[in-house]
Amino acid sequence: MSHILIVEDEPVIRGALRKLLERHDHQVAEAESVEQACGTSLSEYDLVISDLRLPGAPGTELISSAGTTPVLIMTSYASLRSAVDAMKQGAVDYIAKPFDHDEMVSAVERILGQKKTARPAARSTSTNKEGSRNNAPALLGDSEAMNALRHRIERVAASDNPVLITGEAGSGKELVASIVHQQSSRHRGPLITVSCAALPADQLESEIFGHEKGAFAGAQANHRGLAESAHGGTLFLEDIDALPLEAQTRLLRLLADQEIRRVGSVEPRKVDVRVLAASQRDLPRLIREGRLREDLYFRLNVLELKVPPLRDRQDDILPLAQHLLDGLCQRLGLESKTFSDEAAEVLQNYYWPGNVRELGNVIERALIMTDEPRISAEVLDIDPGESRSLQDPQEELSLEDYFARFVLENQEHMTETELARKLGISRKCLWERRQRLGIPRKKGSATG
What is the pLDDT of residue 68? Predict the structure, then answer.
């Protein structure tokens, strides 16, 4: 059951909205003003719904106090300006009064469900641009590759053009997107992240671009898409290669004209968003296979940021590992730990096919499996047979070559879960790569 706070000075409207939400199994609290609302802990709520015009401070004042709790703004003044101002200050969305009950319920359900598929960036409470950047996430590492990436991010962030972020799985593409947003002129607006690969293809269009009531079976109310929710900010599309062709056409229109058309609607809607897209796939090959529009690729690839794999940042591995270890110890309330010399050597020489994500998984598992103040090589549980030192220096394996070799050599004595964990990917991703590379499971091999 979700816990929602309504901030509205009109008792009739407040009471009606409370009854509406309670009928849909939400727990509701009320406040008449920003001052009264701030007398409670806003972080305890899953959503705050506030009128824009209130006695005393306006409803947008709640945004800075709400922290990570989303704030939905209601306004009787359905002008684009008031909506844009609210979104720029960090509101997750706005709704015009008088609102249709279905529209309100749909907006609430979408915002609450959005936590699974979209993650708004941390809201800035500073009126100073540089002040908000001080709270931005940072790239760790002093290697030449990371310094070059930082420099390029600074140049790219100053533009408002689309950006294509490429790199292997687990290399940090989402972190790069967040930094680009925070260093851009849109840093006070929302950053909406959509994982295209995590949603069914038939839902992606509606989720990103919205739909009209009756557009398809189950469309019982108007639905504002995530592109509209990102108005005044940044829309980040992870795994852009998973976007269906029809949705690619809609995205082209957004990039070309800054407008979208909801599914089932003939009327375009103007939006103001910057689009960042990421992929770990060979996009030119997908174009040749007819799975990605060439014109979309060129529109997105105005500016490209290539995130280097961890194996190409060897000098960064140990500092990054210690940083991750320190963070995990702090989060779990444990005393600080370090790595033994043997463990450090293993970390330094491993190939890291799953990149930073795999490094984090390995360290977390090791931390769970030991009470010693130093993490040993044995506890890391990394196969030395896959270390950098045992690879032929003349052999430059692609990630897919490495994947195929690792799976073929280990699938008879390892389960699918173990294979996925060693590769730093999910079982679903392991299955998809098997299909793409034509590597079937062997009969009689270990089961998951």
Answer: 79
pLDDT of residue 433: 77
Contact criterion met (CB below 8 Å) for 35 and 57: yes
Provide the pLDDT confidence category of residue 321 given band limits of 50, 70 and 90: very high
Q: What is the pLDDT of residues 382-439, one digit of tens each?
A: 875 554 443 443 333 445 566 777 788 788 888 888 887 777 677 777 887 777 677 7
Give the position of tokens 């050599």. Answer: 409
- Give the residue-averaged pLDDT of 10-39: 89
Question: Residue 122: inside a domain, yes or no?
Answer: no
Structure tokens belonging to residue 195: 């994982």
CB 349 within 8 A of CB 389: yes
Quickly state the pLDDT bin for 124 (edges 50, 70, 90).
Answer: very low
In a domain, 119, yes or no: no
Q: Is residue 9 situated within a structural domain? A: yes
pLDDT in tens, 203-241: 888 889 998 988 888 788 888 889 999 999 999 999 999
Question: The domain spanning residue 335 has which CATH number?
Answer: 1.10.8.60
Do 332 and 286 share a structural domain?
Answer: no
User: Which pLDDT band holds residue 82 (cuts at 50, 70, 90)?
Assistant: low
How far, in Å, CA of 386 to CA of 201, rounded?
A: 36
Same domain? 201 vs 266: yes
Give yes or no: residues 224 and 138 share one domain.
yes
Same domain, 379 and 401: no
**Which structure tokens are listed for 49?**
């719904």
121 inside domain: no
Q: How wide is the angle at C-alpha 146 spanned by C-alphas 235 and 192, nearest 5°? A: 10
Number of structural domains (the chain) is 4
- When pLDDT is averaged across residues 89-114 and rounded to a whole number, the result is 77
Tell me, yes or no, whether 146 and 278 share the same domain. Answer: yes
- Same-domain check for residues 146 and 205: yes
DSSP letter for each residue of 268-306: -EE---EEEEEESS-HHHHHHTTSS-HHHHHHHTTEEEE
Structural domain including 345 reads 310-384
d(CA 405, CA 418): 15
148 and 270 in a single domain? The answer is yes
Task: Tell me the C-alpha to C-alpha distance, in Å, between residue 31 and each of 23, 42, 104, 220.
Answer: 19, 12, 18, 30
Distances (CA, A) of 328 to 130, 220, 316, 367: 29, 44, 18, 8
CA–CA separation, 140 vs 162, rounded Å? 24
365 alpha carbon, distance to own chain's centre? 24
